[in-house]
Amino acid sequence: MEYRDKLVLAPMVRVGTLPFRLLAAEYGADITYGEEIIDHKLLKCERRINDVVGSTDIVEKGTENVVFRTCKEERNRVVFQMGTSDPLRALAAAQIVCKDVAAIDINMGCPKSFSISGGMGAALLAKPDLIHDILTTLKRNLDTPVTCKIRLLKSSQDTIELARRIEKTGVSALAVHGRRVADRPRDPAKWNEIAEVVAALSIPVIANGDVFEYEDFHHITSVTAASSVMVARGALWNASVFSPKGKIPWEDVKREYVRKSILWDNDIKSTKQTLKEMIMHYSCLEFPEGKAVIRSETLADIALLYGEEKYYKFVNENRLLFGGSR
Ligand SMILES: Cc1cc2nc3c(=O)[nH]c(=O)nc-3n(C[C@H](O)[C@H](O)[C@H](O)COP(=O)(O)O)c2cc1C
């Protein structure tokens, strides 16, 4: 996997499932991260080929609960992001998915109490020895590229020291979210501190934070000298941010997202959450559209809401035709 000059869709819980990743790629994202999945959850899963949808599914054993869905089309650009606090558990979990993805990434930035209390996400930032063990265990035992995503530490010097230690493990790239653990999303990302990490390392650094327009890709690269750029909210609100031709109206992106959700039989909770995030940004969940999304229980409800009933019927009547050809 090449990490230079790439536009990257950031990992986003509930949002970064297959339809959203394919949508971002269609507009121009080169690398697309999946949502974070915890190793414990993955270890309860098995890999299944889904001929009906045309996907490869990681499914909770004994259930039909799809934890991760991917397809051949994205094999060379999809990054599986994992939450972990243990090297051997991370390895066992990674082995379940590594043949179907382009890279495995470890989340070292999540500030949520669920992650921290499990010793995962940003909790790892205070444990450089554990970071080292997790990354070297994965590196030594997998053929798949391994990366990680961190936040800034209290001082630039601390961040640089940790980044250097991470580089020594042999990871293929390091994504740096330019905020500290205690920062809020509205606090400006510190591109200057990402620049200091870039200057201290020789592996590719992926700069992340506050990219909302196509022009920002150039802007953040010129400030940080990072190899690649990662976007979360800018893409969530309008995935066509990756398009060099400029953004298209968000309603059009939303419609395409709905169609892709139907085509890939996306988890309804993921589709609802993604639509809610878009609506919250541009409109209001209290308006009729928002209320109707909240009320929806199935993809058929969503199809009806967005006038895609015919497409829904067509896809579901021809599933085997679609799935088999993928
Ligand atoms: C809805 C949402 C879900 C997120 N989920 C994850 C995640 O699963 N893993 C992760 O490392 N970061 C996650 N993040 C953080 C983003 O990947 C990114 O680091 C952060 O939003 C800063 O980028 P931005 O300024 O482009 O939004 C999430 C962010 C959002 C908005």
UniProtKB/TrEMBL annotation:
Binding site for FMN: 11-13, 81, 149, 177, 232-233
Coiled coil: none
Active site: 110 (proton donor)
Record's signal peptide: none
Descriptive protein name: tRNA-dihydrouridine synthase
Presence of the UniProt keyword Cell wall biogenesis/degradation in the record: no
Keyword tags: Flavoprotein, FMN, Nucleotide-binding, Oxidoreductase, tRNA processing
Cofactor: FMN
Domain DUS-like FMN-binding as annotated: residue spans: 9-279
